Amino acid sequence: MSWLGRWMRSYRQLLMDKPVMTKSVTCGVLSLAGDVAAQYLEQRYSKKDSTKVIQMDVGRAMRFTSFGLLIFGPCAHYWYQLLDRLFPKATTRSLISKVLADQTLFTPLAIVGVFSYVSLLEGRPFVSKVKQDFWTTLKANWALWLPAQTINFRFTPPEYRVLFVNSVALIWNVYLASASASPVTKSTQQDMDTLTS
């Protein structure tokens, strides 16, 4: 048996023995990979001199990784179980219901969650961050995740759904890590200060 086959068998056993932990660690590892890729791309393409050494912000990477490990991974595990209980039939109607519930209920909360979590750990105002970037991020999310979740709920066995999401999320996390780390613009902060005064 190939190394990939052995790895998949071991991973499946871990999913059966310790599903939440396995999915959470997988999510954390792929969140880290997404943030490292985002930092590399941000620095590589924003520097005038592309020969400079890339400087990784380890704190930023750990904040994004810990969100995946501690919050998103466990939440996704239970969320997908709930969707399977609410919409148990393998029908087109159930598929559409799962995708719509995922993208209109869970996803907005996850986006607000990651923006709030990262902002709070950095000591930045999270309300203005959410106000500034939520809709742009949600629309970008829908462009990728509506088709991805349709494939996921239609073809992926339930125990592998978080793995599928984490695999696609490697691409998404590059975007999300960059979006969650971007500063709040001055005009957005001034608008928020005006509202709270």
UniProtKB/TrEMBL annotation:
The chain crosses the membrane at residues 61-80, 100-121. It is found in: Membrane. Belongs to the peroxisomal membrane protein PXMP2/4 family. The lineage of its organism: Eukaryota, Rhodophyta, Bangiophyceae, Galdieriales, Galdieriaceae. It comes from Galdieria partita. Its main location: membrane. Keywords: Membrane, Transmembrane, Transmembrane helix. One of its GO terms (cellular component) is cytoplasm. It is a multi-pass membrane protein. This is Peroxisomal membrane MPV17/PMP22-like protein.
